[in-house]
Fold:
Amino acid sequence: MAADPYGWLDKSLAALHRAHRYRSVQIIDGMAGPTVQRRGQTLVNFASNDYLGLASDPRLAEAAIAAIGTYGTGSSGSRLLSGHRELHQELETAIARLKGTEDAIVFSSGYLANLGAIAALVGTPDLILGDAYNHSSLKAGGKVSGATTLDYRHGDGADLETLLANHRDRYRRCLITTDSVFSMDGDLCPLPEILDLAATYDAMVLVDEAHGTGVFGSRGSGAIEHLGCAGRPLVTVGTLSKALGSLGGYVAGSGSLIDFLRNRAPSWIYTTGLSPADTAAALAAVRLIEAEPQRRTALWHNVSTLRQSLSQVLKNGNTTTPLRLLASESPIICLETSSAAAAIAASRHLQDAGVWVAAVRPPTVPTSRLRITLMATHSRDHLTCLINGLQSWCRT
Ligand SMILES: *Cc1c(COP(=O)(O)O)cnc(C)c1O
Structure:
């Protein structure tokens, strides 16, 4: 009998089901925003990274439509070979202004920005030291680069220093990588300490502001600003697809860094330029982040309101369905469950109560949890709906 070289696929899928790690995509209807429609049911949306509600802002849509009218739908080639639009340059200038850097470069996604920047900055003679909880794209960038990669314990500057002291000498260049706001926990990296260690040990630092940009800092520049590190030498990476409500990614930093990436980042050189619509929408979003700080104020108000109510709910919860609040300093708030099955059951229970909250499980994270993300456009009633759903789950 001939062997089936693809037979392992079904076996692997069956193993995922048994471990409660199988994932599938749900279809949602209607405009992006604080509520979504699913099979005719309205759900309050706590599963989106659209922190400021910009993905449904008519001004972004108008900018995107105007750009399509002027330039068409596709960018039609890589920017080095086919040229780029003034829009691309305007967006890069606007990002550099928001970040307080000399220059910036936009990629087709945040994932590709990390792959391109890391692979350009380090290679086989070099060392990457990364936070153990770093986003998948930072880890993938390390693999693509060919550099030796070691993880330090999550948020642990002392462990990072031990690795630097023990290993730095044997490598040419060293790059420390970290999320600024950890995407599946919501806590912040100890950036001032990381930058001090980097200066001592002659290391570069790459900070992923995917969940920081537009959310943190008095100007909305990000967690680097919030942590008092604006202007210090580092490589900033981010996305246009979360608080900026569009699609794409970027790297911001010194003029030499950006010029070097244009010459050496394969995921920028060998891929088609960002579409005119996405570029124009992101440019409109950067301008709104600067012009409308009240969106950030509304978001942080929701964060403190939810935190206060949550502590009440968890205090009164029983022990058969325990939820544990993880340390968070951001609009990402996670409730750890006792198992992957419990995370799925809690998420289903909330869906029945009209609330959409994602269950995040290994291997994405070490322990299963409900991941709640807040938006500036959630109303008091939306938050009440979530609290009521969690309260009834805690009593099951
Ligand atoms: C979402 C995310 C990315 C990827 O950004 P995309 O633009 O969605 O590809 C990178 N890093 C972190 C920390 C993220 O959360």
In short: The pocket of pyridoxal-5'-phosphate is lined by residues 109-111, 114, 135, 137, 179, 183, 208, 210-211, 239, 241, 249 (CB under 6 Å).
